[in-house]
Amino acid sequence: MPRLVVKASMNSEYENGVIRQFVAFGNRTDAVRAILLTSSLCNPDAPSDILSDFDIELFFDDPMPFVECDDWIETIGLGRVMALWHWPNEWDHEEGDAHHWMRMTYFEDGTKADITLGQVDDLRAVSEAEELPQHYDIGYKVLLDKDGITASMKPPKYEAYILQPPTAAQYASRVETFWMNSTYVARYLWREDIIGAKWRLHELFDRGLRE
Q: What is the pTM of this model?
């Protein structure tokens, strides 16, 4: 079974080594104004193990040179890039999030870093807000802040993304929806329409997860 390390892992030589590489990269790259570590590695109640990834946010006055060319990723110091996923991309673009770009990256030693590129103005707005957005309330750690942008940023409460049980009415509605829509899967299979059945099955579970 995989070894679970509950937050003492933030002190591990491996994790500290990865973080040091990002901080060193930020220090020698003038365009990088701030770096945050977010998500489970910053949450004292969230388990992590050797496969946990690093959610890193880099903030720039102008991130576009880094958005338009990925050569900088290998200069972080974590080795060669073995796999890279861009978001947004031509298949999955959300217009409402036009100021953030992600580079999900696997390095050759197996390290996975989900690197988000953002604008300093957005981080400043978060710092000045009365409440943290959910993706910061789950946990964050300021690794680098050259301009003191995060000085007034609220501390996380670690209350984000905690699932709440549905009400009796909500549960009954989901059950009814599931069983009614599942009959369409059987209908498509009887018609030997495998694509239709797969589509309906995917929609059934995807909708259930999203709701």
A: 0.78
pLDDT (mean) for 102-125 = 95
pLDDT band at 207 (very low <50, low <70, confident <90, very high): low
Which range of 4-8, 87-91, 118-122, 181-185 scores highest in mean pLDDT? It is 118-122
- What is the C-alpha to C-alpha distance for residues 207 and 39, in angstroms, rounded to an integer? 25
The whole-chain average pLDDT of the chain stands at 86
Q: What is the pLDDT of residue 101?
A: 95
How far, in Å, CA of 56 to CA of 115, rounded? 5
Q: Which two tokens stand for residue 29?
A: 């790259």
Cα 146 from Cα 124, distance rounded (Å):
13
Helix H, strand E, coil C: the string for the chain is CCCCECCHHHHCHHHHHHHHHHHHHHHHCCCEEEEEEEHHHHCCCCCECCCCCEEEEEEECCCHHHHHCCHHHHHHCCCCEEEEEEECCCCCCCHHHCCCEEEEEEECCCCEEEEEEEEHHHHHHHHHCCCCCHHHHCCEEEEEECCCCCCCCCCCCCCCCCCCCCCHHHHHHHHHHHHHHHHHHHHHHHCCCHHHHHHHHHHHHHHHHHC
The neighbouring-strand residues paired with 85 are: 104
